[in-house]
Inverse folding.
């Protein structure tokens, strides 16, 4: 594994008209690590991601972007993909009437009589196996659950063999049990050397999964934390800009991800949705019944229902 950061941004400043939304932001992602990027709405997370993925191209901001130790000029999203930056947006974006293979390898399927469907299915099968998915490559996406569709989008990013994988709020449409399963999968991917930038506002998920974290507030980096420094109090205080008190949760994804004996089985039926668990924001991404093909919550994983973040109380 290289000593060079998989991704580094240094002193990035971005303005829209007279409004400066990023004010000297720096961030570093190591190969084989999961790094959290946190901040409340309006903190600058989305703008920073658009710079790292080429949506806001070189020339529209000041600062330096480096991939695998080399300074790069990202003028469009295609540049970022070619340099090994994979991105999975928050919104689930699939074509329901197409197959799993067609969704995963979209844009890389060939055309006409030259299209080798069997070869495409084999390639898709390899990607699905990386994610522990047992569904058939020729399954129609319309029958998949929200959790399976989320993994489908990750498979699509992995098809480009990225060095960096940026995940934007990946558990928005998942239950707690499904989030546990995703945590297992991300740890396996990181173990291969992939650098994962995990964008979220859910403090618990960062404590459970990440090796370090960067906290943005009002367009500035206010905390850069190593694994040993990650606490709910420090993260929430940095996000809020004032001292807060948090209540710890004894049960959560951390226990399941770090201590579950098996993270490789992906064929166990999904657990029922507990009261208060997260649900999809739209019908198109709502989780289907436990009979969905290839349901992927790992056997043995368990997680007590918990809120999406810590309890908060103003400091006295």
């Amino acid at each position: 594994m290289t000593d060079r950061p998989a991704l580094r941004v240094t002193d990035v400043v971005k303005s829209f008209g007279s409004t400066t939304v990023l004010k000297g932001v720096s961030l570093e992602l190591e190969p084989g690590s999961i790094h959290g990027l946190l901040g409340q709405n309006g903190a600058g997370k989305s703008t920073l991601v658009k710079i790292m993925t080429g949506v806001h191209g070189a020339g529209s901001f000041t600062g330096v972007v480096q991939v695998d130790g080399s300074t790069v000029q990202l003028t469009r999203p295609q540049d970022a993909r070619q340099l090994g930056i994979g991105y999975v947006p928050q919104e689930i974006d699939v074509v329901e009437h197409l197959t799993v293979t067609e969704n995963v390898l979209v844009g890389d399927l060939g055309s006409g009589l030259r299209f080798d469907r069997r070869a495409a299915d084999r390639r898709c099968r390899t990607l699905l196996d990386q994610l522990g998915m047992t569904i058939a490559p020729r399954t129609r996406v319309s029958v998949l659950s929200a959790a399976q569709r989320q993994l489908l989008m990750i498979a699509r990013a992995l098809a480009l063999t990225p060095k960096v994988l940026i995940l934007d709020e990946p558990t928005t449409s998942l239950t707690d049990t499904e989030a546990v399963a995703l945590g297992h999968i991300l740890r396996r991917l990181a173990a291969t050397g992939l650098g994962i930038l995990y964008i979220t506002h859910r403090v618990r998920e960062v404590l459970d999964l990440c090796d370090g974290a960067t906290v943005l507030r009002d367009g500035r980096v206010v905390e850069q934390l190593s694994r040993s420094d990650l606490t709910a109090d420090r993260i929430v205080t940095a996000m809020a800009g004032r001292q807060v008190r948090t209540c710890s949760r004894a049960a959560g994804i951390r226990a399941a991800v770090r201590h579950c004996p098996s993270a490789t089985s992906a064929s166990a039926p999904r657990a029922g949705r507990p009261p208060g668990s997260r649900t999809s924001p739209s019908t198109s991404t709502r989780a289907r019944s436990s009979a969905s093909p290839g349901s992927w919550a790992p056997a043995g994983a368990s997680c007590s229902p918990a809120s999406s973040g810590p309890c908060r109380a103003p400091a006295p």
Remarks:
- The first strand starts at residue 7 and ends at 16.
- The two ends are 47 Å apart (CA to CA).
